[in-house]
Design brief:
Radius of gyration: 22 Å
CATH topology of the largest domain: Aspartate Aminotransferase, domain 2
Shape: globular
Number of strands: 12
Bound molecules: pyridoxal-5'-phosphate
Oligomer: single chain
Number of helices: 13
Helix content: 40-55%
CATH class of the largest domain: Alpha Beta
Structural class: alpha/beta
Distance between the termini: 35 Å
Largest sheet: 7 strands, mixed
Amino acid sequence: MRRIYLDHAATTPVHPQVAEAMAPYFSKDFGNPSTLYSYGREAKGALEEARAKVARLIGAKQPEEIVFTSGGTEADNFALCGIAWANQKKGNHIITTSIEHHAVINVCKFLEKRGFKVTYLPVDKNGLVDSLEVTKAITDETILVSVMHANNEIGTVEPIEEIAEIVKEKRIYFHTDAVQAVGHLSINVDKMKADLLAMSAHKLYGPKGVGALYIRRGTKIVPFLYGGEQENKRRASTENIAGIVGFGEACSLAQKDMAEEEKSLTYLRDKLIEGILNSIKNSRLNGHPKKRLPGNVNVSVEGVEGESMLLNLDLAGVCASSGSACTSSILEPSHVLTAIGISPEVAHSSLRFTLGKENNEEDVNYVLKVLPEIVEKLRSMSPIYQKEK
Ligand code: PLP
C-alpha cells in the first residue's frame, strides 16, 4: 500500500546526504573532541565545522555563539533556566505566550514554583501575539521575554522582529523557540534581535537527539548541565559528534534549498487547505491563513473525532497528527487550540498535516480523495452529528 508521510512537524526523515555525512563518525572517526591526539583533533575539526554551518544558517556572526544540546527541549530549558538563575538579582518576572511548546511552558511552570512570576500572553483567533500586549506586560522586574517563532500545531508565524524591538528597547533578554522555523523560514538573529534562539536538527532533515541554543555574545547566562568543560564551559557532556555533523549538514542543505522549498510547500499547503474546506462541510482552518509555516495545515472537522480520522487515514496509508506529537496521546484538548478560542469539542476534532520535501501534488490529491470519504463515513455513524444536521 502507498504510504504518505504528512507529519513533518513531529519529525523529518534524515536526508540521505545527512546520513552519509554522519556515517564515518560512528566508526572510523570515533574520537572524543576533547582529546589531544589525531582522532580527537579530527573530531574537534568536524565539530567546529558543523558549528559554523549552524551559525551561518541563522546569521550568527560568531560560531561560538552556538552551543550544541541534546535537542530543542534542552535548548529551551537552558535558555529559560540559564537566564532565570543568572539574572534573578535583577528581577523575577518572565513573559511568554499561552501557545508555547511544552518545552517552554513546563519550564515556566517549574520556575513559578521556584519563586518566579510568569505572564502568559494571550493570542488572537489566528494565534498571533499582539506586540502591544508585550509592552503592557513588561515591568521593572522583567528579565526575559520568550515568544516562539512559529507554532508547532497551527503553524502561525509570530511578529518576532516587532516584539523583539520592544523587548530590546527595555534592555530585557529575548528568547525565541525557533524549532519549527529553522531551516524553513529565513532567519537572521541580528535582524530579529534575538539574544537566544532554540533549534532542533530533527525538524530539518537532521537526526533526532541533537539541537542547539544560539546565545548572543555578552548574554548573562549560567549553564544548564554541569560537569566537564565542553562547549566553551557552557554545556557539559561529550559532544554527540555524529549527530552534530548531521545537524551541520542539514543546515547547509536547508540554506541551499529553503527558498525553492518554501514556494513549493506553500503551493501544496494552500491547495490542501482549499481542497479540504471546499469538499468538507463544516470544516475550518486553524491558525493564520497566510502568516503560517509553509507546510502546515491544521483543520477542525465538526462532528468527527480527530483520533478516528487519524486511524482511518492511517488505514488509507496517510500519516498525520491530531495535535502536536507530544500531546496527541493526551486526552486534554490542545492548549494551543483552546488559546485561539476553539471549544474543547472542536479542538478534539482537529487534524494536522505537515508537508515536507518528499511530498508532491499527487499526495495532496490522494488526501483530498480519501479524507472527505472518511469524514462522510464517520459522520454517518455519529448519532449526535446526524441529529444536529
Ligand atoms: N519546541 C517546538 C516548537 C517543537 O515543535 C518541539 C518539538 O516538537 C520542541 C520544542 C522540542 O524539540 P525536541 O524534540 O528536539 O526536544
